[in-house]
């Protein structure tokens, strides 16, 4: 990864603005950081003038820090928030909670303490005293969580950081509880404070799927290196322990803000400057992203409605995107090549006297778009030296214009048919029917319905490329996407719609399990007029791998094109570098809190209605909680037939 591959912003804090000797911007330029963390408390800027900076600078450069004193005193909290609002600061860091277990453990702790008391009367008084103290810390934290929530509900244009010590076992629970109390407010982000002497990578897993916005690195975590030149006044140099560097690398690759926190008597111009250079060097030495990874970095965590190429006519730009993914077309070419070689051998065995040139293999590309796969069929024929008669069947009138005007490789003839494959009466039947009507969940662009309809154009012994596809499901934690759906007013519809998404900040929480399978061609008698043979249902029993909040299911597909030629977006065996399909996200209305080793039972249905001309999915969770069945009768989302 080069510098331009990531979008890491750097901040130093805490630094009162009045410390600046030169102008604010030249100081920022000299140092090379993008943000400045500054306290909002009285001895910070709160007593200073708002004219220290311009309105734009307050908004663009400042992280306003709410003071720890505010936890105890709502008046301080409100004064600091009021000052931040007045200044137009849009990036606020709350103080961390007081050290204590998570909110939900109160009952258990009380029970334990009661048992203790019964056992040991001598400790009674001491215990009571302890209980009173700890309760008051908890109560303070509760009150603080409430204050945070009331700010979130009344502000719309700021980002809020809530800091947690990464190696505190109760941190994630406390974060999770706070965000649940705040109804998963999307502008509340966790910030992680690194600390020394702990196995950081162990905690990394806990936070992996979270939308962590900032990493706070206290300057005293750095180890000072002995000066190389004796007696000279060269700049001090510093390094961080290896485990911490690995953690920083991970978060830099996720574009989190890096906040270097001044402490341990370190000075800005000597110590922090050198530490800052060290951090920049880590960023510059991150492994370079491949072109492929780079191209898709900007697409992460963007929810898109799946395409509906049957109901809608695709635009030129969609075809362009498909055609840019050469891997898919190469694999189609391989599949057609292998099928042609097999067919020619079979033909020669069956009719040794008939020359292939006189009776070429008939190939029909159904749903041929602008001809990406048609070209590959021509190449496969040329390379295998198996002659073919080639048809391109497409129902999108605009794509048909392109097909008709295409100049084909080796001037091969292509018979272009402008029709819906389901209703076409062909002049002859084909040996090989090639299609690419697959969505990210396999069947979700209605390949089963289209190919069942088109099957009459295929000879009895003909083959379909693809011959099989499978969908897959896995529970996922993806707070960022959940929050986005939760913000929007049309909540029911949002949570009952599957989305195509390149997951960015997420955690898969179990093994990936097979959902539905479709094969082609089908025995004639199993194709039902009312399409009921394409209904499916599947129940799942997942074993959860990590403590987490489940926000729904990530879904994938794979397909067998021909024999060993496969395409897959299942993370277990994803076809390398293939970019045509991102996963699908099936959200759930209420996140479910799970622990490693817990079970999760879920059911997914594929439902078809010929009367309503639609196919839709319904899904639910039945353990550890029962959720309503999502998208009943396709009320929120469906695919048009
Ligand atoms: C996903 S695109 C694939 C296009 C092309 N095969 C490629 O890979 O570049 C599916 C194409 O099938 C066409 N299509 C979908 N359903 C069809 C149908 N029932 N009859 C004919 N064409 C159909 C769509 O218009 C679209 O052009």
Average pLDDT score: 88
State the share of residues found in helices, binned by percent: 25-40%
Under CATH, the homologous superfamily of the largest domain reads Divalent-metal-dependent TIM barrel enzymes
Strand content: 15-25%
> How many domains?
3
The CATH level-2 architecture of the largest domain is identified as Alpha-Beta Barrel
Instruction: Give the strand line-up of the largest sheet.
Output: 1-2-3-4-5-6-7-10
* Secondary-structure content class: alpha/beta
**Bound compounds:** S-adenosylmethionine
Coarse shape: elongated
Name the CATH class of the largest domain.
Alpha Beta
CATH topology of the largest domain: TIM Barrel
Give the oligomer, counting copies of the same chain as homo and different chains as hetero.
Answer: single chain
Uncertain spans, ≥5 residues at pLDDT below 50? none
Which sheet architecture does the biggest sheet show?
8 strands, parallel, barrel
Number of helical regions: 19
Radius of gyration: 31 Å
Amino- and carboxy-terminal Cα gap? 44 Å
Region (Disordered): 111-136
Protein name: Protein arginine N-methyltransferase
Biased composition (Basic and acidic residues): 111-131
Domain PRMT5 oligomerisation: 468-638
How would you describe this structure to a colleague?
This protein is α/β, with parallel strands linked by helices and 641 residues long. The protein folds into three domains: 3-101 and 145-284, Divalent-metal-dependent TIM barrel enzymes (TIM Barrel); 316-436, Vaccinia Virus protein VP39 (Rossmann fold); 468-640, Distorted Sandwich (Hnrnp arginine n-methyltransferase1), CATH 2.70.160. It contains 19 helices and 26 strands. It is elongated, with a radius of gyration of 31 Å. The mean pLDDT is 88. The structure holds S-adenosylmethionine (SAM). S-adenosylmethionine (SAM) binds at residues 309-310, 314, 319, 322-323, 367-369, 372-373, 393-396, 399, 420-422, 436-437, 450. Residues 297-465 form the PRMT5 arginine-N-methyltransferase domain. This is Protein arginine N-methyltransferase. ATP binds at residue 389. Pfam families: PRMT5, PRMT5_C, PRMT5_TIM. Belongs to the class I-like SAM-binding methyltransferase superfamily.
């Amino acid at each position: 990864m080069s510098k331009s591959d990531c979008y890491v912003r750097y901040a130093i804090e805490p630094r009162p603005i009045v410390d600046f000797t030169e102008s604010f911007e030249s100081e920022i330029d000299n140092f090379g950081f993008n943000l400045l963390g500054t306290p909002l408390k009285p001895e910070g800027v709160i007593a200073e003038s708002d004219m220290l900076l311009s309105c734009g600078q307050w908004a663009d450069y400042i992280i306003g820090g709410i003071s720890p004193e505010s936890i105890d005193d709502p008046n301080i909290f409100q004064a600091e928030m009021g000052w931040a609002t007045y200044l137009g600061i849009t990036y606020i860091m709350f103080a961390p909670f007081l050290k204590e277990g998570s909110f939900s453990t109160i009952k258990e702790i009380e029970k334990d303490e009661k048992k203790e008391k019964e056992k040991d009367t001598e400790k009674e008084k001491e215990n009571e005293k302890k209980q009173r103290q700890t309760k008051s810390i908890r109560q303070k934290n509760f009150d603080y969580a409430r204050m945070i929530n009331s700010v979130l509900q009344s502000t719309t244009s700021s980002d809020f950081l809530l800091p947690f010590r990464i190696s505190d076992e109760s941190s994630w629970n406390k974060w999770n509880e706070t965000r649940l109390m705040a109804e998963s407010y999307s502008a509340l982000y966790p910030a992680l404070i690194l600390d020394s002497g702990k196995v950081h990578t162990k905690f990394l897993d806990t936070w992996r799927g979270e939308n962590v916005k900032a990493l706070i690195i206290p300057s005293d975590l750095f180890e000072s290196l002995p000066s190389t030149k004796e007696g000279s006044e060269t700049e001090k140099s510093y390094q961080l322990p290896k485990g911490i560097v690995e953690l920083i690398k991970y978060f830099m690759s996720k574009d989190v803000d890096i906040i270097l926190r001044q402490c341990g008597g370190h000075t800005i111009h000597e110590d922090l400057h050198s530490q800052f250079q060290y951090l920049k060097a880590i960023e510059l030495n991150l492994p370079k992203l491949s072109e492929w990874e780079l191209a898709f970095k900007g697409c992460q965590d963007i929810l898109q409605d799946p395409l509906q190429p049957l109901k809608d006519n695709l635009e030129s730009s969609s075809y362009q995107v498909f055609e840019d993914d050469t891997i898919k077309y190469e694999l189609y070419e391989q599949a057609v090549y292998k099928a042609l070689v097999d067919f020619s051998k079979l033909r020669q065995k069956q009719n040794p006297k008939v020359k292939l040139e006189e009776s070429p293999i008939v190939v029909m590309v159904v749903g041929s778009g602008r001809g990406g796969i048609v070209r590959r069929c021509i190449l496969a024929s040329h390379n295998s030296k198996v002659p073919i008669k080639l048809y391109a069947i497409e129902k999108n009138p605009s794509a048909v214009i392109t097909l008709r005007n295409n100049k084909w490789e080796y001037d091969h003839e292509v018979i272009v048919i402008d029709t819906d494959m389901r209703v076409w009466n062909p002049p002859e039947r084909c040996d090989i029917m090639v299609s690419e009507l697959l969505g990210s969940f396999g069947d979700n662009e209605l390949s089963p319905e289209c190919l069942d309809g088109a099957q009459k154009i295929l000879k009895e012994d003909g083959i379909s490329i693809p011959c099989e596809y499978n969908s897959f499901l896995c529970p996922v934690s993806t707070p960022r996407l959940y929050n986005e759906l939760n913000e929007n007013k049309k909540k029911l519809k949002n949570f009952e719609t599957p989305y195509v998404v390149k997951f960015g900040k997420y955690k898969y929480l179990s093994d990936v399990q097979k959902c539905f399978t479709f094969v082609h061609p089908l025995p004639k008698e199993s194709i039902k007029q009312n399409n009921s043979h394409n209904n499916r249902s599947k129940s799942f029993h997942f074993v959860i791998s990590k403590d987490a909040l489940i926000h729904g299911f990530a879904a994938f597909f794979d397909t067998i094109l021909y024999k060993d030629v496969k395409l897959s977006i299942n993370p277990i065996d994803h076809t390398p570098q293939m970019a045509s399909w991102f996963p699908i996200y099936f959200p759930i209305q209420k996140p479910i809190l799970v622990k490693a080793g817990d079970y999760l039972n879920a059911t997914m249905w594929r439902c078809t209605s010929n009367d309503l001309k639609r196919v839709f999915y319904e899904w639910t969770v039945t353990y550890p909680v029962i959720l309503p069945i999502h998208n009943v009768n396709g009320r929120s989302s469906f695919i048009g037939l």
